[in-house]
Design goal:
The complex is a heterodimer of chains A (226) and B (342). With 226 residues, chain A is mainly alpha-helical. Chain A has 12 helices and no strands. Chain B is of the alpha/beta class. Chain B contains 12 helices and 14 strands. The two termini of chain B are 49 Å apart. The chains are: A mainly alpha (226), B alpha/beta (342).
Amino acid sequence: MLDLLNLLIPNVMSNLNSMWIAFLQTIQMVFFAGLISAIFGVFFGTVMVVTRQGGIMECKPVWWVLDKVVNLFRCIPFLIMAIAMAPVTRMIVGTSIHVIGAIPPLVVATVPFFSRQIESSLLEVDPGLIEASQAMGDSPMQTIFRVYLKESIPGIIRGSSITLIALIGYTTISGMLGAGGLGDYALNHGYFRYKDDVTLFVIFILLLITTLIQSFSDFFCKKTTH
Amino acid sequence: MIELKHVTKTFASKEKDVHACKDVSLTIHDGDIYGIIGFSGAGKSTLVRCINLLERPTSGEVIIDGVDITKLSEKELRKVRKKIGMIFQHFNLMPSRTVAQNIAYPLKGSGLSKQEINKKVDDLLELVDLKEKKDAYPSQLSGGQKQRVAIARSLASDPTVLLCDEATSALDPQTTQSILNLLKEVNKKLNLTIVLITHEMAVIKSICNQVAVMENGSIVEQSNIYDLFANPKQQVTKNFVMTTSSMNKLYEMIESNSPLIQVKENEKLILLNYANNNADKALISEVSRNFSVDTSIVFGNLEVIDHRPLGSLAIIIGGESVNVDAAIQYFESYGVKVEVLK
């Protein structure tokens, strides 16, 4: 087995430690940026649903501003945004490199994306359920938590897995800007040194992670759909 | 008691305003099963939503047990809503929750303990006859079963009023009847006031005691159920009454000159409209005996509405014309409306 690996991916095997560190860095970026984005994304996505016209807490100005801000951030390619907001990043976390320096741009890129995912899953909730909840005397907060969020769990899971996979893509770009991780590893250990097996191996790992996320998502969707 | 006073609801849109309800006033007494019937677009769905303020009237008052609820704060309104159950055409059960969890939904925050909630859910399941479906999900139920669960859910917070928004319109006739029977049962058992909107006269006929007919946002006719059927005044009401009667068949037969209703010389085709308590007298045989006329029944529609008989009979009556006229007078003297068709 080891012989086979040495044969197939000699340049990965010769420096396993770098690969392992890069992998951990990617996981860290995905985990922290994902966690923070999840909180903000659920919040903003929900606000966009309830404040829109006909929503249970209709407030057009709030909706209008959020909608436009989300569009603004979604139209900027991640690489450009990460560079453009570097000064802000330094203000927030003190540096624009390393894993910590990658988190703010990752969050800023992921939140609008995830907010839209949440928004679209919540909009799929049958308006009849909202009406029933109101008729039963629920407050707007109860309607949000007991109907909108609870009844769209499968959709939220699906949206989360799509977002998570997109986020992994962003982290590889962060790698180019000094954050480390699998993107940096593929670039500096593979591409620049003409070691194609390193690049291919990174693809293989990303494929594994993506498959894993998708399988978990499918499993929990199935479990929560009745 | 529910009183709507001059309730108007206008939906503003860019092209033109839509007047869903125009100056609607009505009174619904405790224990009534009050039907509101109208074609789609008549504004009845909007009107029923004005009762629990899912739609806020543009103007007018909604008075429930003496309180104008349009003046309440959101928080007070939510309290009132808990005492007004509502069921819907498409049931609106929460798909991620089991039958028991759906029924327990309104009980969260009611201060009841887990055991008390459990007991209540079991009692309600027993009432709607769905005990074995306790842990099923809505997607595993038939339409009728879903509506039973919805009824149980709407009763969980011990409401005094139940609003039914086209509650049987998505169900087949047999299931409709069983749901209507259940509504009648809870009306009696719990002294629950029921407000029911529908476009089916058959639904009105089988359970309501009071009816309002709606057209273009206004209530055009309002009366108790018997008078509405015995003596409809507006054309739209007559049309609705016709939908549950087979009498239009008779008019079709006259139109097409059907051989079944050919009258010979000295014969007349007359239509007798019975109302109130004259339907139980053996008038027809009496008439034949006393006035020496021949009578043959060619068509009829008889029913019992609100425990009182109501019906129409088309008969061919033949004999000396003096006798025929006397017979007709005799019918009329008993309060039977006579219409000579041919």
